[in-house]
Amino acid sequence: MKTKRVLAVTATIALAAGLAACSNDGGDGGGGGDAGASNCENTIPKPDLPVVTLWAWYPNMEDVADNFNEANDEVQVCWTNVGAGGPAYERIQTGVSAGSGLADVVMVEADRIPSFQVQGAFVDLRDLGYEDVQDNFSEGAWQDVSVGEGIYGAPIDGGPMGMIYRTDVFSEYGVTPPTTWEEFEAAARSVRDAGGPYFADFAANQPAFVTALMYQTGAEPFTYTPENEGEISINLDDQRIKDMLDYWANLVSEDLVGTQDQFTPEYISGVIGGDYATYLSAAWAPGYLQGAGVGEGADAGVWATAPMPQWDPENPIAINWGGSAFAVTSQASDPELAAQVAFGVYADQASLDQGWQEQIIFPLNVDVLDSPEFQDYEVPFFSGQQANRDVYVPAANAYTGMVYTPIGQYYYSALTEQLAAINDGSSTGSEAADALQADLVSYAEEQGFTVVD
User: Fold this and answer.
1) Mean pLDDT of the chain
2) What is the pLDDT of residues 133-157, one digit of tens each?
3) Which residues are CB-contacts of 264 (< 8 A; sequence separation ≥ 6)?
4) Which segment of the chain is annotated as a signal peptide (predicted)?
5) Which position among 155, 189, 246, 428 has the lowest Cβ density within 10 Å, counted as fewest Cβ atoms?
6) DSSP strands (E only) in 35-124
């Protein structure tokens, strides 16, 4: 069957990325029920109960695991940190390819779920407690962890987007937070013409950010449902996407925005030094920026946030960048207990409060989003602004989700290449969209998918 071919090819390609982790395996971290319980990084206070192994990377996960274990009399969590980002995904892929060695529950970013689901790595949670917690999260939160009709993750946090900006720059150059992209361009030109800094940064190494911008146009870059025997729709040459990329290409060509790679020391130095008037990012950004040293010196007390500019203010579209979930792996010895952990860990009030109060996560649990304490919180990074109420909660509530693709990592790499071409002037936005479309269609067909309109 075509689906089996897709699974086989995808797994073979993914194995190459995962082999690097094999030499560091060492057997720690579990895989299948109690198998790795002796390697826990947390204490298990009720050792007579069954144990579910968990791989997760958030800084407060030991406290989260302790909170769960103390409150639970049916199952205990054995938590291991196998790293974040690339190291974590290499470790997961190694276990998937080997058919053993995975933890029962793993933390993954939402956009990674389809690439593991297509390999049969994750369990559909619809019949494993999903209905009991369905109302705890929004439509958009569930859409992000869905693949076709299945639910393959328990939402934890997200990244509703806003526009972080420097109040000192805005005040000096007499601009106000733009509400539309037309106003954004006008403000950028006004500031630059007066000798001011770049208004923003359009980084080639941020394909997830640009994908969110695609969705804000109303376009649907991908549709994918595994129930349709490996069919995938790719719509990256949608005119709305072309117009958006041409818009940013124009800002770059007129030297209104920078093109420096983000999440680098050089970029952070520029943020601190006032090289950029805005930082278009997500609700997790204040924690990231503070951790990198932003807002502690000469730039302390100058930051505020506002809603993202819109193409059509009469029909605003909320977008999201980032967010994680707990997925139950197909190697779990007891999927029901594993699902209980996936839905229950990082769901208690103490863990959620610690997460957002220390700006580790932006929780998606509606009990938190609706709470006066969360909405009225005066964010220190924003000089006491009630950023959740002003910007991030409305964006989270309005967000309807994205459709991620099982060829997501190739897509991000290909998009990064096209964004670099836009930034160096060798391609227009429209040309980049056409090239990206042709590249992704060809790659998808090579992997055994049927590309449909």
Assistant:
1) 91
2) 999 999 999 999 999 999 999 999 9
3) none
4) 1-22
5) 189
6) 51-55, 76-80, 105-109
Sign, Cα dihedral of 342, 343, 344, 350: positive
Q: Reply yes or no on whether the pLDDT at 22 is more than 90.
A: no
Cα–Cα distance for residue pair 110/403, rounded to 1 Å: 10
The contacts of residue 420 (CB under 8 Å, 6+ apart) are 204
Q: What are the beta bridge partners of residue 223?
A: 233
CA dihedral for 150, 152, 155, 161, sign (positive or negative): negative
Neighbours of 398 (CB within 10 A): 15
Domains of the chain: 2-158+321-379 (3.40.190.10), 159-319+403-451 (3.40.190.10)
Per-residue exposure over 399-433, b if at least 16 CB sit within 10 Å of its own CB, e if not: bebbbbbbbbbbbbebbbbbbbbbbeeebbbbbbb
In this predicted structure, the answer to whether residue 32 has a pLDDT above a threshold of 70 is no
Instruction: Determine the residue type at 383.
Output: S
User: What is the spatial distance between Cα 194 and Cα 175, in angstroms, rounded to a whole number?
Assistant: 12
In the numeric block, which tokens belong to residue 297? 């010196």
Query: Is the predicted pLDDT of residue 324 greater than 90, yes or no?
Result: yes
pLDDT at 438 over 70: yes
The contacts of residue 448 (CB under 8 Å, 6+ apart) are 2, 5, 6, 8, 9, 10, 230
Q: pLDDT-derived band of residue 37, with 50, 70 and 90 as boundaries? A: low
Q: Is the pLDDT of residue 33 over 70?
A: no
